[in-house]
Amino acid sequence: MAQTTILTGKRVAILATDGVEQVELTEPRKALDAAGARTTLVSPKQDKIKAWKFVNWGDELKVDLPLSQARVDDFDSLLLPGGVMNPDTLRMDPAAVAFVRSFFQHGKPVAAICHGPWMLVEADVVRGRTVTSWPSLKTDLRNAGADWVDREVVTDEGLVTSRKPDDIPAFSKKIIEEFAEGPHEGQRQAARQSVRPDASAR
Fold it and tell me: What is the spatial distance between Cα 22 and Cα 149, in angstroms, rounded to a whole number?
């Protein structure tokens, strides 16, 4: 199957809010769109979010769907871009955390880059999983039960993680492959290992 059509018919949710690292959202999204996916920017914010561009504020990005209306059944996979402010805000939102965890409960592929894996910690879905991230998250991820490694891209049964913007080409290539494969039992197992009473599916 041609790379340009490998994700035709696949629906990808991109969860983000103000302070998302712009390139970590826009570049993987372009790759997913080019592969035929239908991407949807989901956010607790209405209308628009303000992206971060390395050391300054970046562009305003249009929100396609409010988080309050988003359901896991409407999507095949999930992308979690980074930026420090973005996941730090989202992990304080119970609805955002539950939305992330619901993808694991349904076995659907999830990809997270840079600070994005903070959401995986909060959703308690990394126990026994091999992951990477921005280096400052290493201790958080290990404390949450993950096996943290320093590699540009790591795949663990439907979970794809990368460290930083420089890793985006490898990250984008791998998420296309994993999203094309569809559900993974390893994701469901990660959700079943969670014991947090507040991490329920939406």
Answer: 25
* Position 101 pLDDT exceeds 90: yes
Question: Among 61, 114, 137, 154, which one carries the catalytic annotation?
Answer: 114
Residue ranges covered by each domain of the chain = 3-193
Q: How many CB atoms lie within 10 A of CB 74?
A: 12
Q: Is the domain 3-193 a CATH 3.10.20.340 member?
A: no
Distance of alpha carbon 35 from alpha carbon 189, whole angstroms? 28
Distance set, CA 178 to CA 23, 56, 91, 181 (Å)? 21, 32, 24, 5
User: Which member of 101, 115, 129, 164 is catalytic?
Assistant: 115
Q: Is 42 assigned a catalytic role?
A: no
Residue 115 known to be catalytic: yes
> Which pTM does this prediction carry?
0.93
pLDDT at 194: 63
Taking the C-alpha atoms of residue 100 and residue 191, their distance in angstroms, rounded to an integer, is 10
Find where tokens 């059944």 sit: 73
- Angstrom distance (rounded) from CA 59 to CA 182: 32
Contact call for residues 180 and 164 (beta carbons, < 8 A): no
User: In this structure, are residues 103 and 110 in contact, taking their beta carbons and an 8 Å threshold?
Assistant: yes
